[in-house]
Design a protein that fits this description.
By secondary structure, the protein is an alpha/beta fold. The chain has helices spanning 3-7, 11-17, 58-71, 82-90, 107-116, 132-138, 161-170, 183-186, 221-234, 240-250, 253-272, 291-297, 312-322, 352-358, 374-389, and strands at 75-79, 98-102, 123-127, 143-149, 174-178, 196-200, 214-218, 277-281, 304-309, 327-328, 338-340, 364-368. Helix content is 39%, strand content 15%. The strands form 2 sheets. A 7-stranded mixed beta sheet has the order 1-7-6-5-4-2-3, with helices on both faces. A 5-stranded mixed beta sheet has the order 8-9-12-11-10. It binds pyridoxal-5'-phosphate (PLP).
Length: 392
Amino acid sequence: MTDEAQRGGHFETRAIHAGQRPDPATGATIVPVYQTSTFTQEAIGRHKGFEYSRGNNPTREALEKCLASLEGGSFGVAYASGMAAISGLTQLLSAGDHVVVADDLYGGTFRLFTHVLPRFGVHFSWVDATRADEIAEAVRPETRFLWVESPTNPMLRLVDITACAEIARGRDCLLVVDNTFATPYLQNPLALGAHVSIHSTTKYIGGHSDVIGGAVVVDDEEIDAQLRFTRNATGGVPGPWDAWLTLRGLKTLALRMREHETNASRVAGFLVTRPEVTRVHYPGLPDHPGHALAKRQMRGFGGMVTIDLAGGAEAAQRFCNATRIFSLAESLGGIESLIGYPFLMSHGAFPRDEKLRKGITENTVRLSVGIENADDLCDDLGRALERATGTA
Ligand SMILES: Cc1ncc(COP(=O)(O)O)c(C=O)c1O
């Protein structure tokens, strides 16, 4: 495969070939796990581009090139986890800098932004990012980042990335989009005007719930250099084996996302008909408030479905314990279906009032719809609803 062929082609082709040449030493078709901490030099300072695996490693480099290609960016930087990627990006900030951040975001990011970074003199303003006017009003001269997720976790609200990018460009700050839920297959923030796309690769990109990882993709060479410098200085790199597992998952992202979406649409359609369910949040449903925006900025609606149940906390918690195929577990985006209770699990870090303000109630249940058979998934949910509400 030539360099040209690696860069071109459709998503599915790039997922399998971008950044992944046959191994120059042995011809191995699949990029090997370069399980080495260091690289022998021919003479002092004379080497093949790799010195020490915290700085660079060939397996990790292949993953980074592939991710950059799929996101339509020039540079990918891989990290040990999604949170390491988020914290790596915030290491570009200095004391006195300010970030405008969407108030509807992953609980771990909230924890970092409320309990860690303020101690280093970084200030945050929390806004409803579905309202561009709120974002614009919150920007100050010292604002460096606008930080959003779309779709959001767990309420699956849609944020208009193009509108946010216009504000960022007009006010000389960077738009950061956490693209974990959508994945590069369904949404490319950089093409919509964002400066940074960030991922927990633990989720759909790795795709098999067997590896933790994160990544940042950018177009700007200067930002890429700063990220690599701070990552090397602070050390949050993924090991070669984790990079390899993530790259293996990435190869089938397109296939998996198509199946996730087919199954999620079936599950959402099924749950809408159930009397035990008061609300189904899925951007693919025509009455979802972000449906039109999702059609404009995404190439599909994804594999996550969030529901509110009748019967309060007790029924919702019984439901989470009653499924047989959906496993009660943190995380999302794997081939297997997971069920979670955001109020106490993924969003446990938020104060109660904050959760309620965002619409995360004790009735809310989040489903990561896997790629098992859709009939089996609907049967499992139907039976669990009956068991949870005492109708079985
Ligand atoms: C949207 C989003 N961003 C970031 C993270 C953090 O990723 P990780 O768990 O890989 O550190 C998560 C984890 O659930 C997430 O859902």
